[in-house]
């Protein structure tokens, strides 16, 4: 490429960098710096976060553990977790719906799991599914450190596609009153349809889906709005520590198979 052509593209490049500077910062923190630290330490980000929690958080206090994770993510390494604003929305909805059984797809480090567990009514249970065994091991330790036993929070290791068909037979989940989709947005539609196919959603069930605006789940949202079986609401938020990057939690209310 000649210097003249390169110079012609320079204003466009500068404009794009200015417009998407927040996305560029996010890319640097979540991909470049994280990969460097993974190689340097031999640990994943969730393992480094848990090590910090062990030395700075109060055992048996889920609220303090959550605050410690938020502090670590803001001051040291961006965790890419749900964050406190979405966490408060989630906890409020759990308290409001008072579900007997909750299903979470995508445990990650256990952050959103703690928000759900601390808001559960007495006697309710939470089943949380994480496909990666190494990540699940970290989440298991965090959940137990917060004081929740297996009767309240059961962690299942496996892909959601394989776990959902066996929830009734292997984990005694007849139906889920509230579901949180927090794994990969491209799987949201597939897993929602699996839940429907296996009759795991009672009429009136609440389905929450994180990251529906960023990185986005357009096919999931289109299906939920057009199939006629859900009432939809969107809670507008942003990414933690990146207020300029808009995101949202979708809240679906299941009307039944119709």
Automatic annotation (TrEMBL):
Q: Which PROSITE patterns match?
A: SAM_OMT_I (PS51682)
The organism's superkingdom is given as: Eukaryota
EC class name: transferase
Q: What is its EC number?
A: 2.1.1.6
Pfam families attached here? Methyltransf_3
The GO terms this record gives for MF are: catechol O-methyltransferase activity
The places in or outside the cell where this protein is found are: Endoplasmic reticulum
Quickly give the catalysed reaction: a catechol + S-adenosyl-L-methionine = a guaiacol + S-adenosyl-L-homocysteine + H(+)
GO CC annotations, alphabetized: apical part of cell; endoplasmic reticulum
Q: Which UniProt keywords apply?
A: Catecholamine metabolism, Endoplasmic reticulum, Hearing, Methyltransferase, Neurotransmitter degradation, S-adenosyl-L-methionine, Transferase
Which SUPFAM superfamilies does the entry mention?
Answer: S-adenosyl-L-methionine-dependent methyltransferases (SSF53335)
- Gene Ontology BP terms: auditory receptor cell development; catecholamine catabolic process; dopamine metabolic process; methylation; positive regulation of protein import; sensory perception of sound
- Which N-terminal residues, if any, form the signal peptide? none
- Which family is it part of? Belongs to the class I-like SAM-binding methyltransferase superfamily. Cation-dependent O-methyltransferase family.
Q: What does this protein do?
A: Catalyzes the O-methylation, and thereby the inactivation, of catecholamine neurotransmitters and catechol hormones. Required for auditory function. Component of the cochlear hair cell's mechanotransduction (MET) machinery. Involved in the assembly of the asymmetric tip-link MET complex. Required for transportation of TMC1 and TMC2 proteins into the mechanically sensitive stereocilia of the hair cells. The function in MET is independent of the enzymatic activity.
Protein name per the record:
catechol O-methyltransferase
Native species: Nannospalax galili
